[in-house]
């Protein structure tokens, strides 16, 4: 994160004028939309940075590792942000709603787990009136039904690895309990 922040003025909580409740509510919702649009722009930049492997210049194993380090984001959050950032590239309608502040990051995150270019528009229409919690539950149910219907099951065994340095590797294994 940058040590110097420009063009932003901070007010202490005590310096805020007391607004009528309707104005306070409107201002909160307005700022939420701005935060959403800024998050979309941030993730689009992350997607470009990842695609161009900007993180490799720092000798890091992934874009998520770079994001965690340079932007002070928890590693799990960074991995999820990179996943969503990558998905935005193939979901233009979701990206447009996100960029306009009409879809929250929480909804976009859930949508990117289940949407494909072919299903994007239908899922977007369903997601719009839902709350973020409803969308998350729907996405989980959608994945279960889709996997069950296609015969997909989680593999009993899985081994993945990434090269960290010239001769160093990180391994991840999923093995049955027995």
Describe this structure in words.
The chain is mainly alpha-helical and 178 residues long. It is 54% helix and 7% strand. It has helices spanning 21-51, 63-70, 75-88, 92-99, 105-114, 120-127, 132-149, and strands at 158-163, 169-174. Strands 1-2 form a two-stranded antiparallel sheet. Helix 1 (21-51) crosses helix 3 (75-88) and helix 3 (75-88) packs across helix 5 (105-114). The longest helix is centred in the N-terminal third of the chain and has 31 residues, at 21-51. The termini are far apart. Mean pLDDT is 88; it is low at 3-7.
- Intertermini distance: 45 Å
- pLDDT < 50 runs, ≥5 residues: 3-7
Tally of contiguous helical segments: 7
- What is the approximate shape? globular
**How many beta strands in the DSSP annotation?**
2
Highlighted features:
single chain, 178 residues, mainly alpha, 7 helices, 54% helix
């Amino acid at each position: 994160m940058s040590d110097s922040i420009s063009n932003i003025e901070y007010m202490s909580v005590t310096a805020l004028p007391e607004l009528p409740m309707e104005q306070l509510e409107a201002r909160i919702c307005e700022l939420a939309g701005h935060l959403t649009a800024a998050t979309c722009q941030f993730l689009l930049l992350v997607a470009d940075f990842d695609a161009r492997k900007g993180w490799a210049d720092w000798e890091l194993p992934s874009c998520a590792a770079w994001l965690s380090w340079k932007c002070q984001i928890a590693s799990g959050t960074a991995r999820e942000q990179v996943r969503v950032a990558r998905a935005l590239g193939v979901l233009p309608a979701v990206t447009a709603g996100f960029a306009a502040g009409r879809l929250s990051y929480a909804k976009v995150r859930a949508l990117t787990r289940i949407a494909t270019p072919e299903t994007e528009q239908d899922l977007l229409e369903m997601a719009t009136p839902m709350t973020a919690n409803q969308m998350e539950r729907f996405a989980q149910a959608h994945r279960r039904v889709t996997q069950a219907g296609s015969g997909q099951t989680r593999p009993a065994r899985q081994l993945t690895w990434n090269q960290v340095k010239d001769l160093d590797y990180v391994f991840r294994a999923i093995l049955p309990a027995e």
